[in-house]
Amino acid sequence: MTHTVSALCLNLLLFLHVVAHLRNNAQQQWPVPYRRFDSRPAADSYCEALYPFCPTGDSDGRIPYMRDSDVISVYRLQTPVWEFKYGDLLGKLHIMHDAIGFSSSETGANYTMEWYELFQLGNCTFPHIRPEKYAPFWCNQGAACFFEGIDDLHWSQNGTLEKLGELTGNQFNDMAQWVQDDNKTGIYYETWTVRSDPSPNATVWFESYDCSQFIHRTYRKLLELGAKLRSRSQTNYTKIYLYSGEPTYLGNDSTIFGQPALKNLAVDIRTFYHTFRPHQTFVDFAVSLLEAYEKVVIEKSFYLYYNFEYWHLPMKPPYIQITYEEVPLP
Q1: Is residue 59 predicted with pLDDT exceeding 90?
Q2: Rounded to 5 degrees, what angle do the CA atoms 183, 247, 140 make?
Q3: What is the DSSP string of 150-173?
Q4: Mean pLDDT of the chain
Q5: Has residue 64 got a pLDDT over 60?
Q6: What average pLDDT does range 278-306 have in this prediction?
Q7: DSSP assignment of 276-322, as one string?
Q8: What is the per-residue burial (b if ≥16 Cβ within 10 Å, else e) of 192-217?
Q9: Known catalytic membership, residue 97
Q10: What is the mean pLDDT of residues 186-199?
Q11: pLDDT over 90 at 223, yes or no
Q12: Which residue among 124, 139, 145, 211 is the active-site one?
């Protein structure tokens, strides 16, 4: 390596150290705010869904207009994830999917609204490691889906279908406009909620951005519009937690994977995510589980991708936890 190249590498490392130092000394906001965008980009053709996203909804995400004289009933909908394929299997683990139902008194039409991954949960949680691309490749978009009909059996058999209240037509139309705006600016799915520990007073480092968070935002918007929502049962939702000490900011794709001086970090991130790659054989999956255990539990290390940036989590017991906890209506 020439003296000039060595000097450039040294200067780059010093620069990154200064940036990290300034960032750490600045007032870091916890949880890290979810990043909003000006518009939703087109999905990359490499990303493929096992099940098509929103197959019966409007291709442009349009929501029907309601007359103000209409009375719109609002329903809480919840069912086990992939209930259509596995029945109540994931429900026994409290891994639930949430949605909202609407019913027009004037037309008798029913509608379902939900927010979920364009390319299934696994693709939103872990990236693809592609030989032709050095940086991990993410298919992590999520979006709202609005379609006609409520599948009563799907929601009520192993989950919840409960009327919460009523809206005027104008309240519904205002909500519909908010959904359109929210959907254009909140574009990616985030599986994990990251906390310092399981106690009630724990610090939340990162919030998830998933189906239940969309439901909570919608309920708050309906309250803001003047709706009154009431539930006769406890309103519980699935949360998937990671537990760690204070996270360390690492950088984005260009700063990590575009700089030779950070090759070791780039390789470590690629190796970490390779453990969670899709389409593994049974033997490969068994080996990957052991590798994941070693990395997360033994080495106490996890790389989180949030706001299109990487963070390092110094993991701590109980490391990961799935809960089904109450979140009251607003």
Answers
A1: no
A2: 30
A3: --HHHHHSSSEEEEEEEEEHHHHH
A4: 91
A5: yes
A6: 92
A7: T-SS--HHHHHHHHHHHHIIIIIS-EEEEEETTEEEEEEEEEEEEEE
A8: bbbbbeeeeeeeebbbbbbbbbbbeb
A9: yes
A10: 97
A11: yes
A12: 211
Residue 115: both structure tokens together = 């927010």
Q: How far apart are CA 284 and CA 49, in angstroms?
A: 22
Collapsing DSSP to helix, strand or coil, 28 comes out as coil
How do 110-117 and 96-104 pair as beta strands? Answer: antiparallel
Give the tokens for residue 58.
């409007």
Query: Which one, of 40, 160, 176, 14, lies nearest residue 88 by Cα?
Result: 160
In this structure, of 44-48, 113-117, 147-151, the range with the lowest mean pLDDT score is 44-48
Q: Could you tell me if 262 and 250 are in contact, meaning their C-beta atoms sit under 8 angstroms apart?
A: no
- In this prediction, residue 147 carries a pLDDT of 97
Looking at residue 15, what is its pLDDT? Answer: 45
pLDDT given for residue 23 in this prediction: 53
Residue 211 annotated in active site:
yes
CA Rg value for the chain: 22
**Residue 33: burial class (beta carbons within 10 Å; 0-12, 13-18, 19+):** exposed
Parallel/antiparallel/unpaired status of strands 248-251 and 309-326:
antiparallel
The residues, ordered by sequence, that sit 6+ positions from 33 with a Cβ below 8 Å of its Cβ are: none
Could you count the other beta carbons within 10 Å of the beta carbon of residue 167? 23
Once rounded to an integer, what is the mean pLDDT over residues 66-87? 93
The rounded distance, in Å, linking the Cα atoms of 52 and 55 is: 6
Token couple for 43: 């999905």
Angstrom CA distances, 230 to 30, 211, 227, 237, 269, stand at 31, 20, 10, 16, 46
pLDDT per residue as tens digits for the range 15-29: 444 445 445 556 899
Asked if residue 330 has a cis previous peptide bond (ω within 30° of 0), the answer is: no
- Of the candidates 3, 97, 216, 312, the residue annotated as catalytic is 97
DSSP letter for each residue of 226-285: T-----SS--EEEEEEEEESS-EEEE-HHHHHS-GGGHHHHHHHHHHHHTT-SS--HHHH
- Using a pLDDT cut of 70, give the percent of the chain over it: 92
In angstroms, rounded to a whole number, what is the distance separating the alpha carbons of residues 78 and 324?
Answer: 12
